[in-house]
Design goal:
By secondary structure, this protein is mainly α.
Length: about 120
């Protein structure tokens, strides 16, 4: 009936920390929400990374299984998060160096990993 009395009583009985508790709890709630979103994004990134590692593992297994066909070849594997022209050119240069040393043909395998995909 007398809100001004209630407020005056609260000011006398409660500490400053308790008076500001609602604002503090709202700030903590916002921080927890942001943290939860960040954890969810990290979990999704981890899932994509695990899938990419599975793909790379399968590629390597395939190369190993094809070993009979590759016994007279050098194998160059270039794996990058995002493959650009410089990555491909570097892999080609390295393959050419190996070819120059061994005189054997070269075979190249590459994978493209893109963020979010």
């Amino acid at each position: 009936r007398h809100p001004e009395w209630l407020e005056a009583l609260r000011q006398r009985l409660l500490t400053r920390e308790l008076l500001h508790a609602p604002e503090t709890l709202r700030a903590i709630e916002g921080t927890l929400r942001t943290l939860g979103e960040t954890v969810a994004a990290l979990a999704e990134a981890q899932r994509r990374t695990e899938e990419q590692v599975r793909m790379l593992t399968q590629t390597v297994r395939t190369l190993i299984q094809d070993g009979a066909d590759l016994k007279d070849h050098d194998v160059v594997l270039e794996a990058s998060w995002v493959v650009d022209r410089e990555d491909v050119e570097r892999a080609v240069r390295r393959a050419e160096i190996l070819r120059g040393r061994s005189g054997r043909p070269r075979r190249m395998a590459g994978m493209t990993w893109r963020e979010g995909g």
